[in-house]
Structure formats: C-alpha cells, structure tokens
Amino acid sequence: MEILIQQLFNGLTIGSVYSLVALGLTLVYGILHIPNFAHGALYMMGGYITLTMMTKYGLHYWLAIFVSIVVVGVIGVLMERFVFHPLREAPPIHDKIAAIGILLFLEAFAQFVWGAEFQSMPTPYGQVVEIFGLTFTMQRLLIVISAIVVMILLYLFLKKTFTGSTIIAMSQNREGANLVGINTNKVAMLTFMISGGLAAIAASLSAPINLVFPAMGQLVILKAFVIIILGGMGSVPGAILGGYILGFSESLGATYISNDYKDIIAFVLLVLILSVKPAGLFSKGGH
Amino acid sequence: MSKVQRIAILVLILLAIFFPIISQNDYFIHVMTLSFIWMIGVYGLNLLAGYTGYLSLAHAGFFAIGAYSLGLLTTKAEMNFWPALLLSLVITGIIGFFVGLISLRTKEHFFAIYTLCVGYIIYLVIDKWDSLTEGVRGLIGIPAPANIGPLSFETLQSHYYLVLFFLLLVVLIMYRIVHSLSGRTYIAIRNSEDLAQTIGISTMKNKLTVFVISTVIAGLSGALYASFVRFIGPDIGSIAIVFDFLTYLLVGGIGTLSGPIVGTFLVVVISQRLQFLQDYRMLVFGPVLTLLIIFYPRGIVGAVASWTQKRKASGHQTIMSAKKLPEEQVKEG
What we know:
The structure holds two protein chains of two kinds. By secondary structure, chain A is mainly α.
C-alpha cells in the first residue's frame, strides 16, 4: 500500500513535468499547426541555463529559473521569426525538417559549450519531509506545487486577459483572428515565448531530481508528443490531463510491470491510440 | 535522358570503378564504401519522403533491423551470408509491411510522430532484449560475405565493389520505379492525396508498396553495413541515424534521383574535412539543414535543375525576341 502511494506521488511529479512541456508544445501546435520537434531542445537549454546561472553566477534558484525563462523564451521567439515564419506557406514536411535542424544545432551547441557529461543541479530544497508517515523530498513537492501554480496562471492568462484570448482566437481560426484586427505575427511570437518559458520551467524544476545533459530533452519531447496526441493536438486541458495520465501509467508500470521497459509504455500507448484513431483521440471527424 | 546526362553518368560510374585503383589509401576506400552504404539507405528514405511525401522517422529502426537480422543469422544461426542477406531483407520487409499497414492510416504530422515513436520502440527493444541482441554489448564478429565461386570478399577493395554493385542496382531500381506509372502515382499522392483518390488511385495500396520497398532498401543498407563494419550496437537504430539520413537527403535534394548521391557524398567529404569538430559537426549541419529547407527546399540538385531550366527559358526568350525583331523592323519600315 505504501509503495502504491509513493508511486502515485512519483507519477504526480513526473506528470507535472510532462504536462508543462506538453502545454508549450500544444500551444504552438494550436497557433501554427506545426509539431515543434525542437521543443525538447528548448527544454534542454532551460536546464543548462538555470544550472549555469546557479553555479557560475551564484544566483538563487528562483532567480536562475527566471533568467532561464526569459532566455529560452527569446530563443523561442527567434525560432519563430527566422525559421517558422518564413516557412508558413511551405508544405508541412518542411517545418518538421527545419525544426529537426534547430534541434540538432541546439544539442551540438549545448555539447560544445557545456560538455557531454551528465551534470547534477544543486537545489536549496534537498530536505526530506514527512507527511502522514510517508517521506517526500521537498524538491518533488515543489515540482507538483509549482507546476499547478503555473498551470492556473496560464489558464487565467488565456481565459481572463485580452492578450490571452487573442492566442485562443488565433488557434481557433487564423484568418478570422486576422479579420477582427489581431496582429497574428505578434501572437505567434508571444506563443513561442510562453512555450519556451514553460519548457524552461519544466526543465529547471525537474533537473535537480534528474540530471542535465545534452540529450535530456529527447525522451521528454517524444513523450510530450504522445501526450498531445492523447489529449488532442492544440488542446490545453488535454495536455494537462494527458501529462498526468502518462505520469501515472509510467510510475505504476515501472513498479508493477518492468523497470527496463518503462520508457516504452508511452510509445506503445501512442501506437495503440493512432492504430485505432489515426487522427488522434479527440479529432473532429472528416479530413 | 539527354546525351550530356548519359555521358556524365558513365563517367561517374567509371570513376567509382577505378577509384580503388587510383587511390591506394585504404582509409579513403573505407570512407567511400561507408558513404555508398549510407546512399543506399538514403534512397530508401527518398522514395517514401521525397516522392510520396510521407516523412518517416523510423528508417533508422529498419536500418537496424536489417543489420541485426543479418548479424544474428550469420553469427548465432551460423547461416551462409547470401541466404542470410536475402532472409534479412524478407524480415525487414515483413516488419515494414505490418508497420506500414497501421502507420499509413495516419497522415502528415501524425505519421511523422508515429514513425518517430516506432523507431524509438525498435531502438529500445534492441537495446533491452539482451538474450537475443546482446544489448549494449552489441554483436561482434559478423563474417564478411561468403565467396561466390572464385569471387571472395575478404579484402577491402572487393568489399568496395560489392557495395558499389548494390548501390548501382538500387539506383537502377529507383530510376525504373520513378519513371514508371507507379512513380507517377506516388508523385500524385504526394501532390494531393484526395485528388489521387478521386481519379481512382488506390492510395493505401500504393503507399504500402512504397513503404515496404523503402524499408527493404533501408534494411539492405543496414545488412551491408553489418557485414562491412563487422560490429553493430544498438546505437545504429538511434534517432541520430535517421537525422543523418535526412541531412544527406536534404543537402542533395529531396525528391530527386541524384540527390541522395550528391548529398551523402558532399556531407561525408565535408565531415571528413571538419574532423576537428567531430561531435560538434551538427553545429554546422543543423543550421545548414534549416537554411536549405527555407531557401532551397529541393537541395543542391533541385537548385541546379531550376537554375538550368531558367537559363534555358531565358535563352529561349532571347531567340524569340531575336526572331521577332526583324518583323517589327519591317512593320516600322
């Protein structure tokens, strides 16, 4: 029983990270209809920048995360401006390849600047807390709480502010949004900024319990794709729900099925879903 | 095919045949053989992604399946090389058939993501299935191709010719496919699947055929790789390999016949020049990939083709205007 609760909590932690990454991915997909394969590289950059800010410049954890959000957000905006914007009329295969190019570049760049070895990120929240006889590390609790706070803030931003609703409007109908006077270019840049920021938060939160290395984004991004297909491409609540579903099924699968094959669960899940419903779980009929 | 093209192809083939005789450097021959093997794999990807418009990111997986099938059949089952090669192609084809059957129901982004995940599953299975694939230790001691009568493939030079033979065979098959009715059908599917269906093309049947051919060619490339390098590890199924394939294809020209050769050759040669970069070569090729797709989506071959076409068109115009000129003068006169 104790193991089960511990694993459920682990699932909640991993799920929070997955949800944050998937949120960024789904927002970009909603706006531009491109699967951003480079999103994992943004995640990785987020981890490294927070790490450098902490170890090299001695910034406090939260301050380092803030710097990382801004820097990765700007990288996202640059990506939109220089790559995806010129390609907006191109066939869909081009966006994907361009994104892969960025991914390869950023990974090589990280390896060049920070080296290929695995690095661990220090955290001021290493202590262990005991709740109802169960032990949790502070960092894990922090991940869950911060992720939920970020999601609520994002939700309020999208639903309650004017700028936020322009993003939703554009994801519903690009031409329509343009017609009512929304500057679609600005919204696209803003979306990439938020998407990069979310990736940076996710990486900075999870890095202390995992490790920082150039390929750290690869598995996460693959799983994020699984999540947004699970939750419907472009759907915000779907990304959150999907993230937690995957988090739970992975942590339970690792304990009760096989630890070796836990990474495969997500992909088998995806293969099953797409085999039955080729356009994703929540596709709206027709082509 | 124009006369110039015929001569160019003949010269290239002759160059390839005489290369080991001209260059006595074993290292160069080794690099060339490897790049021929990559070219075969890139042709497989080109038929699917370039001509049919389905970007498959699972091809490193099929490359690995080909390589591991050959490796396992020759080392563990101790089969002769040639039946093992044939059997490994059949195995790749069968797996390709079933993967294609399901994955081709999806389109565009979903297909790319689906195949990405399939590729990752193949990689993980190879990595974790210790009892069959030896896991991270990899397969060691894969034998060189067995003799055919008096022909032996023990030396580097003879292996070079073997791989060259398969490359030429694949190019010939590609040429025949692309210039046949099936090739036109595939291009029609790429341009508009709905339209192709409307004019009575069975898109699923055609896509599945392409997918199987393309995976078998990737498998052939993998099997040749295994017998050439003699050692394979799970890394050959990793996503990095499929990104390499894509780089070769994009630089050369996606959806062109000579693209895979031009791209692979150039990138491999430049990589050799940039050896000091080693792991960082993607610092150069990553941006190159992105810039190419923005400015020259059909790669070097596509850029050259459109340039010669333009030149021909403008040349045609000057002739036309030259012809026109006297008439106008007559009118004015």
